[in-house]
Write a structure and sequence with these properties.
The chain has about 425 residues and is α/β, with parallel strands linked by helices. The chain is built from 12 helices and 19 strands. It comes from Micromonospora peucetia.
Length: about 425
């Protein structure tokens, strides 16, 4: 029964004093209204006969807006007058300007499109969860509604990482062109390979002269060199409990993902091969054997549904996977936290056999709250204890950094907004020195 039927019953109740027997009048009036409701319900278009489908965006970057349209087709011979509710998970971020339920009118054999605008609040897959159609009769007194009819059309919008560090890519690529490709190195050094022959100019190193080629051309030619391509880069993301800590406005894992995407885009342009491994107590995501223009897209889609888990990371598992998968010497970039407890007991015992085969870089985000606690003057007794704890945490982080350096590990420790460009600078420096 709808509000219209209730209103009709209330209006009829006003005529009860005119009846010889108010009780008999109430029974007659209720019966008439109920009969009208049943008749109206019977004339409503059957929801089970409707068919539903979707079209629209499948992916959207975090912070962007996706539009997904629900296509409701009425194959029955009756006009559909219905209230339709298309429900998504709350984190899909349905726009408030689109009401959660809409009144529609669909003629027999026609189709109506009901758009939904979504601005997701988190990364990952955001599915449509329920479709409810309440079909009203011509008088609006009764309705028909069947659970699960029509069936909810399956649709999932994948929310990709924001990739704010993309703005640093042009500057890093210009530095890469200086190192590799535009300004070819004039001398041979470690980590370089032969590039081209060109004519000798004043100032060239005479040791670069190719005497055989010069004899064939009757001109003095010199060899040019460039940093080696097709190097191996492995991005390893720690998805354990330390990655769930919020640094600023987002979890530490999101900062690591942003830095990994910038590093991947830069390495792909440099001609290097990039592999990806995300793990805690088990492997969560992998991308292997990838290079070229499809690399960044594959990595973005692999990282999109990644979430932190409240478990201690098994670094022995990570080291075993790296040693098993990567036979060739590679640059391994481990995104984790410089936390004394986790690294001292987990990473340091397995680091010697990992560093013996690969060049290891630790990329970590430090919490600015700790620095702020050590630089502000305590105003209350509790502030002094907090400052002392912060000093101790910073001292433990320094000890961990020193222990990592003894194994030849490069540590990039920066604030959340500076981690991505700082890590890219480290990659370019190692490439220029031929240490990849």
């Amino acid at each position: 029964m709808t509000w219209r039927a209730a209103l009709l019953l209330a209006v009829g109740a006003l005529t009860l004093p005119a009846w010889p027997s108010p009780f008999a009048g109430l029974l007659v009036m209720t019966g008439v209204v109920l009969l009208l409701v049943l008749l109206d319900r019977a004339l409503a278009a059957p929801p089970g006969a409707l068919t539903a489908a979707r079209e629209g965006d499948r992916t959207v970057r975090l912070g962007g807006t996706a539009t997904v349209a629900l296509l409701l087709h009425n194959p029955s011979g009756r006009t559909l007058r219905a209230r339709v509710r298309d429900a998504w998970v709350p984190s899909a971020g349905a726009h408030p300007d689109v009401p959660p339920s809409q009144l529609v009118r669909v003629e027999p054999g026609a189709t109506v499109a009901l758009p939904s605008r979504l601005t997701p609040l988190r990364r990952g897959d955001r599915p449509a969860v329920a479709l409810t159609v309440r079909s009203f009769g011509p008088l609006g007194l009764g309705f028909r509604q069947r659970s699960g009819r029509p069936a909810t059309p399956p649709w999932t919008v994948r929310v990709l990482p924001r990739f704010d560090s993309r703005r640093h890519l042009p500057e890093k690529l210009s530095r890469l062109r200086v190192i590799d490709g535009i300004q070819v190195s004039r001398g041979r050094g470690q980590g370089t390979e032969f590039d081209t022959l060109r004519e000798y100019v004043v100032g060239d190193d005479v040791r670069s002269i190719d005497w055989r080629a010069s004899a064939r051309r009757a001109d003095v030619l010199v060899r040019t060199w460039r940093p080696e391509r097709d190097r191996r880069l492995v991005c390893v993301l720690d998805t354990g409990r330390t990655s769930a800590v919020r640094v600023g406005d987002e979890p530490r894992l999101d900062t690591a993902i942003d830095a990994a995407l910038l590093l991947t885009a830069l390495a792909a342009r440099a001609g290097d091969r990039v592999d990806l491994l995300a793990a805690d107590t088990t492997v969560r995501a992998t991308v292997t054997g990838t290079g070229g223009p499809v690399l960044l897209s594959r990595v973005v889609h692999a990282l999109a549904p990644l979430q932190a888990t409240l478990a201690e990371t098994d670094f022995d598992l990570i080291a075993g996977e790296l040693l098993r998968r990567q036979r060739q010497r590679s640059l391994v970039v481990l995104f984790t936290a410089l936390e004394a407890g986790a690294l001292s007991e987990g990473l340091l015992p397995v680091l010697p056999r990992l560093a013996a085969r690969h060049k290891v870089v630790i990329a970590a985000t430090h919490d600015p709250v700790l620095t702020a606690l050590t630089t502000t003057v305590p105003e209350r007794p509790g502030d002094a204890y907090a400052a002392a704890a912060a000093w101790r945490a910073l001292a433990e982080r320094d000890r961990v950094r020193a222990a990592l350096a003894r194994h030849g590990v490069t540590v990039v420790d920066a604030e959340a907004g500076r981690l991505a460009p700082a890590l890219a600078d480290t990659y370019l420096r190692l490439k220029a020195l031929g240490q990849l």
